[in-house]
Amino acid sequence: MNYLLASAPLKLREIPAVDFVPMAALVILLVEREILRIRSGTPRSVAHHVINLAIVPLMALFLLFVGLRALTMIG
Amino acid sequence: MSVVAVSAAHARPRRAIRASVGLWALSLAAALAGAELVYHLVGLFWGAACFAALFLAIVHCAVHVGSRGGGDLAPAALIAAASLVPLERLLVLGVPALSFLRLYPNALWVLPLGLAGAYAYRADWLPGARPRLLRPPRPGWEPLAVQVAVVVAGAGLGVFAAHIVPYSGPHVLVHQDTAKWAGAVLFALAGGVEELAFRGVLQPITVNAIGPMGIAVSFLASAYVSVAWMGLIAAAPVIVLSAITSVVVYRTRCLAGAVGGHVLLNLLLLMLR
Q1: Of B273, B246, B245, residue with least CA distance to B261
Q2: Which residue in A1, B199, B216, B217 could disulfide with B249, CB within 3.0 to 4.6 Å?
Q3: Contact B246/B203 with Cβ under 8 angstroms?
Q4: For chain B, how many helices (H) and strands (E)?
């Protein structure tokens, strides 16, 4: 019940579950990037480049998703 | 005698690299086939989850190889570039579907993949010279004529495809809303994005790693994503054009004709059928 009330303003339950899959992958990669940054200390290693390359499209997809969501909720 | 010995010593690691890349490509193909099977048998959510898991696994594999590579970027770059294949499938399945885009409601995947392709294309840490986007590498009319010929071939295949690909629904441009143009533009853009990602990024990296066999690898990857998105019959002309552009981009080191041809093919396929 609490979950329903909490999610109702954002209408999260109306979003298809598949839309959350790329976002979950993005969260994993962002966490991984932070771990790498803290561990290595060098900001421009190959691992950083590879993770950045993977983050770019998922972040773009996330921003598209948020933009479309905002548009449909406002409109 | 010493020359023979030296060339044999060079050929052995090259052959070993080819064998390991071949094995790796087979494993990737098997994993992709498994994810497709899950998508078709179980459903969209689990299919997307499988492609996401595969994408993350490949990225982490590239990170691992990159950190232990000892300065050799080629293996990590090859693995990172291979992640474009499950990424494209993940984006196609996971992108919000918009009904007003008409023919392909999930065509929004083009934007994130285009960004990823542009980012990788401009990345100076990736080994291998990427083909030029606009200017032919040599002056003169011959390289220009080749690029124009590829564009014309793309247009011809588009007209041909519009006639042979069966389509029973209403014409996509018959609707009154202006949003239909967004769908048309995205579908046309998909061709350019595929060329940039597969001929502009994946092909030079695979060629750099395993030689001319890399052309076949990147061609198969692009053929697979086209079939998976559009279906076998609609993707057939795209596959033919991809075969042409793979060779042309490898020989001329210029992407302009390939991008123009593929954009025209998609646009004419959409407008004329």
Answers
A1: B245
A2: B199
A3: yes
A4: 11, 0
Count of other CB atoms within 10 angstroms of residue A55? 20
Q: 3-state class of B254 per DSSP?
A: strand
One-character DSSP codes across B207-237: HHHHTTHHHHHHHHHHHHHHHHHH-HHHHHH
Distance, CA of B148 to CA of B80 (rounded, Å)? 32
Token readout for B209 is 């790693």
Tokens of B178: 């202006």
Write down the ipTM of this complex. Answer: 0.87
Q: CA–CA separation, B53 vs B36, rounded Å?
A: 13
Query: Which tokens belong to B172?
Result: 């996509």
The count of C-alpha atoms lying within 13 angstroms of the C-alpha of B273, restricted to the half-sphere facing its C-beta, is 22
Can you tell me the distance from the alpha carbon of B269 to that of B158, in angstroms, rounded to the nearest whole number?
Answer: 5
Which chain B residues are Cβ-neighbours of A66 within 8 angstroms?
Answer: none
* Cα distance between residue B200 and residue B202, in whole Å: 6
pLDDT, tens digit, 9 for 90 and up, residues B83-116: 999 999 999 999 988 877 777 788 899 999 999 9
Q: What spatial distance separates the first Cα and last Cα of chain A, rounded to whole Å?
A: 28
Geometric angle at alpha carbon B85, from B90 and B186, rounded to 5°? 65
What is the CB neighbour count within 10 angstroms for residue B43?
13
pLDDT at B256: 92
Distances (CA, A) of A22 to A53, A58, B46, B88, B91: 15, 6, 12, 11, 8
Query: Mean of the per-residue pLDDT values for chain B?
Result: 86
Q: Do B52 and A50 touch (CB under 8 A)?
A: no
Residue in the block written with tokens 């014309």: B152
Domain ranges of chain B: 2-272
Q: Which two tokens stand for residue A67?
A: 């933009």
What residues of chain A have any CB closer than 8 angstroms to a CB in chain B? Answer: 16-19, 21-22, 24-25, 28-29, 32, 36, 45-47, 49-54, 56-58, 60-61, 64-65, 68
